[in-house]
Specification:
This protein is of the alpha/beta class. Helix content is 32%, strand content 26%. α1 (3-13) runs parallel beside α4 (62-75), α9 (205-212) packs parallel to α10 (261-269) and α10 packs across α11. It starts with a helix and ends with a strand.
Amino acid sequence: MSLQSSLTQAINQRADFLAQSEVNQTDCFRLFHGTVEGENGLNIDRYGNAWLIQTFHQTLTEEQLEQITDLLTALTPLPVIYNDRAKRNSRIENNLQTEHHEFACSEQVIQENGIKFTSKLRHEGQDPLLFLDMRIGREYVRANSQDKTVLNLFSYTCGIGTAAAMGGATRAVNVDFSSFALAAGKKNAELNHVSEVCEFIQSDAFPALRQLAGLKVGGRRGQKLPKYPKLAATQFDLVFLDPPRFAKSPFGTVDLINDYQGLFKPAMLATKDGGTIVCCNNVAKVDREAWLASLVRCVEKQGRQVSAIEWLHCHEDFPSFDDNHPLKIVALNID
C-alpha cells in the first residue's frame, strides 16, 4: 500500500474519533501511527494549531512531504511542521522555512479534554512537551483525584499533576530532575488556574522517593552523593509512576526491564492504605502479565495486598499489534 493510501485509510478509520475529539475540546492527538499503520518510523500528530510530522527511521522525500502536506491541509488547514529525527539519537536535523521555524520554536497552547497545556514543536529537548499516548493516564487521574493528595513521579511537564488538580486534588506534587520540564509544568498549572494546588520538586527521583517512603537515601557503589532536597516522609492517596526505560544517576539505576521493583517498592510505601498506585512501563518486550505478577509479589512481600487491578489502554489514535501496546499502564489499589 502506498504512503498516501495508508494515511488516507488511517484518517478514515479515525472519523468518529476526530469528531468526538472536537466535542471533547481536544486538539492534540495522533493522526497516523506509522509503526502499526504501514510506514514504520513515521508519526503524524495534531498539536493545537499545527500538524507535526516526525520521521525516526527514513527521511521523507520532497514528493512524500508534499503528498502528506496536501492531505493534512485538506483535512484541517494548519501549518505543517516536519521534524526529521532519523539520523543522530533522534535529534531534529532538518531546517525549516523561516516562517515555519519561528512558529515551531514559539510557545503554543493546546487542549486535551478542555485542559490547557503549553507546547513547543521545537525546543532544547526533543518532544513537544506532552506525550499524547498518555492521555488515558491523565483522564484516569483527573477522574480519580477529587479531594485526594497525588504524587507524580518522573513528572516531565507535569501533565498528570495538572490533570489531578483539575480533577479536584487537594495537593499535586510533581517530581522531576529537569528544571526545563518543571518550568513547563508551572506554566500548565498557570494556564488552568491551579497553581495553588500544584507543587514542583526538582530532584533525582531516587532520593525524593526514598525520603517520602521513610527509607534511607543511598547511592550506587563508589558514587559520591550530590546535594538533594530534603523531604519529610509522606504518604499519598494516589501515586503515579512513569519512569524512563533506562537512566543512571549517583543515587541508582532506572531499569524497567531488570529492576522495576527498585522504584516500585518505595513508591508503593509512599501510597496510603486504601490508596492507588498507577504504574507505567513503556518497554515493548516486557510481558504485561509477568510484569503485573512481579508488582503484586512486591506488594505482598511488604505485608500488604492488592485489592483491585485496572488496566488503562491507550486510545484508538494509538493502535497496536494484537491489542498489545508497548505502553503498559496499570492502576493497583493497595490495602
